[in-house]
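Ticket #295: bound-state structure for 2-(acetylamino)-2-deoxy-D-mannose.
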Amino acid sequence: MNEKFKGIFPALLTPFDGQDRVDTEVLGRLVDYNLQKGVDGFYVAGSTAEVFLLDAKERLAVMEAVSSRAGGKCTLIAHIGCISTKQAIEYAREAKEMGYDAISSVAPFYYKFSFEEIRRYYFDIVDAVDLPMLIYNFPAFSGVNLTTDNIREFLADDRFLGVKHTSSDFYALEQFKAGFPDKVVYNGYDEMFLAGLSMGADGGIGSTFNFMAEKYIEIRRLFQENDMSAAQALQREVNTILRALVEVGVMQGEKAIMEGLGFPLGQARSPFVPLSGAQKEKLLRLTLPTLQTAV
Ligand code: MN9
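RESOLUTION: The complex was predicted; output attached.
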């Protein structure tokens, strides 16, 4: 039943035009470009989409652009997370309306909510909207540290699809699968994709999948065929790109790389600062030679 959720899911970037407006036309092309590469689905309006820098109208426009372009062609997960339960339920209802296959949410952050409050947040959403929920566990950014037992409490309920685990705690990842083999666990850090697979991940949701999905599709194939040395070699190649990218900032860097590949997505939104000419030049020099051009 959860087969359609396995595999490679780019966490889509949000293209902005020259006036800093969401460019849904370019977003549609980014979707097609990745569908042609054979991705299994998309993760929409998440961290990589700069979601917390979008207003509600823009967020819905992003969700709508992706569902109208990719609906019926692959599996779609909408990140509906925000720190208000009421607002999250509204986004979840919209996702349902637009035909999304699942919803996902980061834990409510900023106010240091107790686990009981976080638990209620998730259960109120799944009580209100009939779509499977993927927990988005990203302690480094959210500041919310859910324990393995906390997360297992959600997984024990039928309405929870699984976990997107953006953490290097691979023991926790393994424990989710050990306790709940039928739930879906996605690896979150692209630089450790192969490690996640080896501990039981069913696939990955990643931001660098936007421009090199083919490499992750191949790592997963090699892993499934037990060709670990080839899979490691490819992860190493991917990590030379990630190293250069993380140094300048993920979204800014990815947008510069996409532009270098012939696919301009504009700038990351303020307060992100655009890369300097020298940063861009160095990034492209270190990354483009091993990447496929976009068009
Ligand atoms: O959840 C992504 N996180 C963000 C996954 O975009 C903030 C990852 O794909 C990372 O961007 C990537 C680089 O650290 O692994």
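RESOLUTION NOTES: The longest strand covers residues 160-165.
TICKET STATUS: resolved
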